[in-house]
Automatic annotation (TrEMBL):
Residues 240-260 are annotated as: Disordered. Residues 71-151 form the Large ribosomal subunit protein uL2 RNA-binding domain. It comes from Glossina brevipalpis. SUPFAM superfamilies: Nucleic acid-binding proteins, Translation proteins SH3-like domain. Keywords: Ribonucleoprotein, Ribosomal protein. One of its GO terms (biological process) is mitochondrial translation. Pfam families: Ribosomal_L2_C, Ribosomal_L2_N. SMART domains: Ribosomal_L2, Ribosomal_L2_C. This is Uncharacterized protein. Signal peptide: none annotated. Residues 162-284 form the Large ribosomal subunit protein uL2 C-terminal domain. Gene3D superfamilies: 2.30.30.30, Nucleic acid-binding proteins.
Length: 298
């Protein structure tokens, strides 16, 4: 190797040799530390990274197939949510997040056919039929097969006396009623209070707003035409369920962790603060008006 530079001096290739000799370590160093820059998404933007549901073109009560993500991003395959594991394969039952009823006249009646468990959610679900239409809804605490539930969008002068499972606008329900499956804005899908055993409480009414206390104890003022289902969500003992073994925890889709986080103790514990004041839910922003161009020459 030492003879090669002396041979190159006579041939005038010493400068080229020195360049190659200096570039080789840099090339090897780059190859050793070669990395692929991937933009990793952050959790908390509405994505659970638990499963992907393969929906069909039209609504169906047929169980849908799912793909488990186990906390990984479906595009890059990188771990995003560390507390999620694989879990048992489950079929997904498509919930119809809207209750349509008549705006005038008597309420629409539907019959509960079956109440069952769903492995993809904490609450129980109910198969409901009306005419030749079948759909899944979130079951209430005391709902059972054979019950008749009513749906109406009419707001009478005197509040109605609803039964458990009925769906009415907030303005038609009396103060103190327990509700779930609450719309955030009129006409949208049920957005709030889906988890097992949860419920909101109607506190008071003012103008065209109805104040509801959510399970987080926060108070929000919703439009009186927002639909809600009466009663408490089923499976109220879900938070008291005893897991019993590490294997059962893995079957539920939980990834093990080294230590438990103390909620109120330690340096990074949660601090107990006062609840924020009541917030008014604003309507969604309107779409900008389309610009009309006149082509007629005046």
């Amino acid at each position: 190797m030492n003879i090669l530079p002396r041979l190159m001096v006579n041939s005038g290739l010493q400068t080229q040799y020195q360049m190659i000799y200096s570039v080789l370590p840099i090339m090897y160093g780059q190859m050793r530390t070669k990395t692929k820059m991937v933009e990793k998404p952050k959790p908390g933007a509405g994505e659970q990274y638990r499963r992907v549901v393969h929906y069909k073109d039209e609504y169906t009560i047929e169980p849908l197939k799912t793909t488990h993500l186990a906390g990984r991003d479906p595009v890059t395959g990188r771990v995003v949510a560390k507390g999620i594991g694989g879990g048992i394969k489950q079929k997904y039952h498509w919930i119809k997040w809207q209750r349509d009823g008549p705006a005038e006249g008597p309420a629409q009646e539907e019959r509960v056919i079956q109440v069952m468990d769903d492995g993809c959610r904490t609450a129980k679900i109910a198969l409901v039929g009306i005419g030749d239409e079948l759909k899944y809804i979130i079951a209430t605490e005391n709902m059972k097969a054979g019950d008749i539930i009513r749906t109406s969008k009419f707001i009478p002068r005197i509040p109605v006396r609803p039964n458990e499972g009925d769906a009415y606008p907030l303005g038609a329900l009396p103060v103190g009623t327990k509700v779930h499956n609450l719309e955030k804005n009129p006409g949208q899908f049920f957005h709030l209070i889906h988890a097992a055993g949860t419920y909101g409480t109607i506190l008071r009414k003012f103008d065209d707003k109805v104040v509801v206390q959510l399970p987080s104890k926060r108070e929000f003022a919703f439009d009186k035409t927002c639909m809600a289902t009466v009663g408490r969500v089923s499976n109220i003992n879900h938070n008291k369920e005893h897991i019993g073994s590490a294997q059962r925890s893995r079957e539920l889709g939980n990834r093990p962790r080294s230590g438990l986080w103390q909620r109120k103790d330690g340096r990074f514990g949660r601090k107990i603060r006062r609840l924020p004041p009541m917030a008014i839910v604003a309507p969604p922003p309107r779409k900008p008006l389309e610009v009309i161009k006149l082509t007629l020459a005046l």
